[in-house]
């Protein structure tokens, strides 16, 4: 049996020889194809990729050098590898290469992972007497990061000047509101103490003359004069109250608003509802006047323009803020258009300025045929807002 197997293997025509030769030929072909075909292609591809990355890095470096704005390149440890000429002007008389960027810009906290994750961030930093917008970009392929500095000193100065102007404008607005209220009080006192008293004395004299008259025709004449003077005195009282609501000083905001709502109903028939949430708190006179004037202006708008049949006022007292909510069922209006209008927008602007003088917020939502809602929120942690016992003494 063994002899037959050896004889079969010695036979070159045996199919086993042919199969082995075919397998060897296949493996040889694959080996030579991989070694002299695929492998060189892989090596060439890797080399071309390295060349492209190198060219990219060189181009980036060239652009950085040509960039008129400062550019700094960092490694993953935050150490400076390279800078352009403009960067040296940001840090004069300092050798930058090798320094950590955190020593130069302490607010720029850059973990090593920021390069791996290709992180991008932007910060504003004052360096010396100049302000810079600093853009950070990590590049995981090149294993480095670049900082791009843009000088925004002039923009920052403009922003600071604008903020200063806004503060001055706000202070001027507050002062103007105070002067208006002072003038209202002065006029109110003048009308009450001067014209009001004169009319009252005139009424008393006419009543005395009426009593002393023996002529029935003169009696009717005096009665008409007294009635006219009483009407004038009544109108004068209303004007005086609108200029300086004494009830606001004596009883507080909630009582003054309730009185105003009742008066509007008696004069116009428009029904108003007022609710208070939380315990009523007395504030300093200026704040209570501000809130009262907002309610007064809102109700005037409801009467003149809203065509509403009812409205509601809600005062929400809380430790941190006072919230005033006024809503009606009127025809609504376009808020943006009205604010731009010189005829109807001044009232809304005045309300907005009053609220913002206390660092508060005013929001107005209005929809056609769906009414209007006004929400004013004033924080109670800013400035003097609390009531003192002697603040109304006068």
Largest sheet properties:
5 strands, antiparallel
Overall helicity: 55-70%
Query: pLDDT under 50 segments (min length 5)?
Result: 388-394
CATH superfamily of the largest domain: Histidine kinase-like ATPase, C-terminal domain
User: Count the strands?
Assistant: 10
Total of domains: 3
Specify Rg, calculated over alpha carbons.
43 Å
State the end-to-end distance. 137 Å
Order of helices and strands: HHEEHHHEEEHHHHEHEEHHEE
Number of helices, where a helix is a run of at least 4 consecutive DSSP H or I residues: 12
Shape verdict = elongated
Q: Using the coordinates shown, work out and report the CATH topology of the largest domain.
A: Heat Shock Protein 90
**CATH hierarchy: architecture of the largest domain:** 2-Layer Sandwich
**Class based on secondary structure composition and strand pairing:** alpha+beta
Write out the strand line-up for the largest beta sheet, numbering strands in chain order: 2-1-5-4-3
Strand content: 15-25%
Q: Return the CATH class of the largest domain.
A: Alpha Beta
Averaged pLDDT: 77
What does this structure look like?
Mean pLDDT is 77; it is low at 388-394. The strands form 2 sheets. This protein has a 5-stranded antiparallel sheet with strand order 2-1-5-4-3. It has 3 domains: 67-151, Beta-Lactamase, CATH 3.30.450; 172-244; 250-394, Histidine kinase-like ATPase, C-terminal domain (Heat Shock Protein 90, 2-Layer Sandwich), CATH 3.30.565.10. The protein has helices at 2-10, 15-66, 85-90, 101-104, 113-116, 153-212, 216-243, 246-251, 253-268, 285-306, 335-340, 345-356, and strands at 71-74, 80-83, 120-127, 130-139, 144-151, 271-277, 310-317, 321-328, 361-366, 372-379. With 394 residues, it is an alpha+beta fold. Helix 9 (253-268) runs parallel beside helix 10. The chain contains 12 helices and 10 strands. A hairpin with a 5-residue loop joins strand 9 (361-366) and strand 10.
């Amino acid at each position: 049996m063994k002899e037959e197997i050896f004889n079969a293997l010695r036979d070159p025509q045996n199919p086993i020889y042919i199969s082995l030769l075919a397998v060897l030929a296949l493996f040889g072909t694959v080996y030579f194809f991989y070694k002299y075909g695929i492998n060189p292609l892989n090596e060439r591809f890797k080399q071309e990729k390295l060349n492209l990355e190198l060219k990219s890095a060189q181009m980036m470096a060239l652009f950085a050098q040509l960039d008129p704005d400062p550019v700094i390149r960092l490694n993953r440890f935050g150490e400076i590898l390279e800078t352009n000429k403009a960067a040296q002007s940001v840090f004069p008389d300092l050798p930058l290469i090798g320094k950590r960027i955190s020593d130069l810009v302490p607010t720029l906290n850059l973990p090593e992972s920021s390069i791996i994750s290709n992180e991008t961030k932007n910060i504003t930093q004052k360096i010396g007497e100049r302000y810079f917008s600093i853009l950070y970009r990590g590049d995981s392929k090149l294993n480095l990061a670049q900082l791009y500095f843009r000088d925004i000193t002039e923009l920052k100065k403009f922003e600071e000047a604008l903020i200063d102007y806004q503060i001055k404008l706000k202070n001027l607005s507050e002062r103007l509101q105070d002067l208006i209220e002072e003038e209202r009080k002065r006029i109110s006192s003048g009308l009450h103490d001067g014209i009001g008293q004169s009319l009252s004395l005139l009424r008393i004299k006419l009543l005395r003359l009426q009593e002393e008259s023996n002529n029935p025709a003169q009696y009717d004449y005096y009665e008409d004069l007294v009635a006219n003077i009483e009407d004038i005195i009544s109108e004068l009282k209303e004007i005086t109250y609108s200029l300086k609501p004494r009830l606001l000083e004596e009883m507080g905001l909630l009582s003054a608003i309730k009185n105003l709502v009742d008066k509007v109903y008696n004069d116009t028939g428009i029904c108003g509802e007022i609710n208070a949430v939380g315990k009523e708190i007395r504030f300093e006179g200026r704040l209570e006047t501000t809130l009262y004037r907002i309610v007064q202006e809102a109700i005037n708008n409801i009467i003149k323009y809203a065509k509403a049949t009812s409205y509601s006022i809600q005062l929400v007292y809380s430790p941190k803020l006072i919230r005033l909510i006024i809503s009606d069922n009127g025809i609504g209006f376009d808020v943006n258009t009205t604010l731009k209008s010189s005829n109807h927008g001044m009232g809304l602007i005045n309300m907005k300025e009053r609220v913002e003088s206390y660092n508060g917020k005013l929001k107005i939502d209005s929809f056609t045929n769906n009414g209007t809602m006004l929400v004013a929120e004033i924080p109670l942690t800013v400035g003097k807002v609390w009531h003192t016992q002697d603040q109304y003494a006068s």
